[in-house]
Amino acid sequence: MFVIYYLIAMCVFSGINAGLLSYFYRRPLNSFFTAFFFSIVLADFGYLFLALSTTIEGAIVANKVCYLGACFLPLFLFLLICRLCSFNVPRWLKLFLFLYSTLVFALSCTVGFSDVFYESVRYVVLNGFGSYMPTYGPGHVLWDILLYFYGIANVVIVVVAAKKKRNVSYKTLVAIASLSFVSIGSFILTRYLENDTLLMPLVYLIDELVLLYVCALVKMHDVMNSVLESLEAENTAAYLAFSPKGYYLGCNDIAGRYFPELLECRVDHALPSDIEIAGIFEEGMEQLKGASGDKVYRFTYKDRYFKAVMRNVHQNKKLQIFLFRIEDETNIQRYIERLDANNTELAALIKNNKEQIRLFQNQMLVSMAEMVNNKDGFTGEHLKRTKEVVSILVEKMQLDPNLNYSKEFYDDMIAAAPMHDIGKIAIDDKVLCKPGKFTEEEFAEMKTHAEKGAIIIKNLLSNFQSELFVEIAKNMAGGHHERWDGSGYPYGLKGESIPLEARVMAIADVYDALVSKRCYKDAFSFEEAYNIIDSSMGKHFDPSLKKYFDMSREELEAYYKKECEAERTEGA
Question: Who wins on pLDDT, 488 or 570?
Answer without folding.
Answer: 488
